Structures
1.
Amino acid sequence: MSVIEVARTLAGHTGAVNSVAFSPDGALLATASEDTTAMLWDIASGEVTHVLHGHSEPVFAAAFSPSHAIVATVSADDTPRVWDVRSGKCVHELKGHSLPVFGVAFCPDGTTLATTSYDESARLWNPATGQALRVLAGHTDIVYAARFSPDGRLLVTAGGDGTARLWDVRTGDCLHVLSGHTGIVSTASFSPDGKRVATASFDGTARVWDARTGQLAATLAGHSDTVWGATFSPDGKRIATASEDATVRVWDAATCQPLRTLEGHTDSAFTAAFSPDGQVLASASYDSTVRLWDPAGGKTTATLTGHTNAVNSIVFAPRGSRSGGLLATASADATARLWAL
């Protein structure tokens, strides 16, 4: 097993770092923190380019637009914000949600922004103007996450009411309610071809659905506790699930049969992510470590140590970007780290 040293420790926040996000060109990293700020970091130097002040409560997540020009943040203060990357100035406060806003995502062409809230709604916005476009109402509990389909025509939302929902982005109509989970649906994501959706649930299962019909294709059963995340590999051939039971599982996406159970974490595996080429699977844990796995063979190839508290978020630098080969991690220890793989 190889030893990988941290390339940079990004210290500056005074509270837990909840999430990390690379800009599409890999030049910048955004961090979102419990200290009510987000920060933009220059990857090459490791220096802060801007501290995004304005939120009055913890910032849960940040996302870059595909054009790199703006970044959106969501917070417990109920108000998403859109910031100019070059100046660090807030250009829009998005008014409408009435409770903390937890999830944020840009559509692939950058023309629409989605936010999800404890107020049981998702909302669509024009990030260039700050205009509210649609209120997606139907969930009966917290909406935790939203993801656009690869073509930008559909949005999937994951809810505390035990359902996921598929929406027409253009009209705001709910096309399908994905019902069957018996616990909170924590995340949902599209396959790379947009034909399927994977959901993860507190009921200890993940499920795969037909995105066109909304019909259940398979239930991925095997974890013994909450499944926090389910994600497709870049080629769409595998699904990785991360669980409170401290394991990560790899499934054949075509047959939905289990391929590997990845064991080694000593606490909840909170999230898992494939590298852009699909050759590495990274998992983040409350045990303060990140593990790198060979998804085909199921072996740990490296353990990333150095964080002193739970690792909340991981993201690989975009393929072909100037930061290709880097992994970013966010931790409750108030730091983010960059690792050269």
2.
Amino acid sequence: MGRPTRQRQAASTSETHSEQSNAKQDAEAIDPTSVDPDEVIKTDDGELMHEPTGLILEDEQIDHGPEWRSFTQTERDKKSRVGAPMTEMMHDRGLTTTIGWQNKDAHGRSISSEKRTQMHRLRKWQNRIRTQNASERNLQQALGEIDRMASALGVPDATREMASVIYRRALNEDLLLGRSIEAVATAALYAACRQENIPRSLSEVTPVSRVNRKEIGRTYRYISNELGLEIEPADPKQYVPRFTSKLDVSAEVQQKAKEVIDVSAEAGLLSGKSPTGFAAAAIYAASLLCNDKVTQRKVADAANVTEVTVRSRYQEQLEAMGLEM
């Protein structure tokens, strides 16, 4: 009984060695420069390997990570020896140093009054030398304005970065001549919201800005054309979730409102219409169809439009759907 088992094991071992030998021969015969990229995988060690043959194509990869290991966020923060990453939201991209305001030494002990006076003087000089010319002071003021408005609008960091990049481009191409810093900063933030598909209308941006709506719109069109920004028309459906959340209506109304927008847009009713007013009217129409009625005033207030806009738009939308209320 034992002998056949040993024979099977020997045969299996022989087959394994034969497969390994064939794979090795295939790996030696293959040309690394002619392999199919779809067959190349990256191992845990950072090596590039040809998966069918096991051939290592490149094994001297540079590891850009730290030389230490960590298993928790607290441990990672404790071992890290670097500061915050580079960011476009600061005029110096966060590369300059700053002196803290804690008035404590490295051990957490309070420093003497003489040292406090000295550190206060150093902080003032540090803030002065961070901006070396008028252009940097302009950029510092504008980025601070963008950050203030973005915080008021609840805009994510990625959109703030985009707005900062747009403003830097406008500054480098001398598009600020004859225009205020606040107007260009607001226009850059509005353009970034449009590019990142963050639904913020001019009616929402204007109250947090220091310039009027007409100036924002004019400046936005100017920098958009001069910088060649590829911005698609706003989609009313992007505003629906935020407006319905303010109104506290059901998910059925939200889904129905998007359906109303799709049908009425196919009928050509969206052309030349404000996306916020169109979305508000669709929500009101959907609330009527779902028997979850809200008043026109509440819908208008949530979308920051007039009741007349809601009243005229929703009737057109219902007619496009072949309904009458």
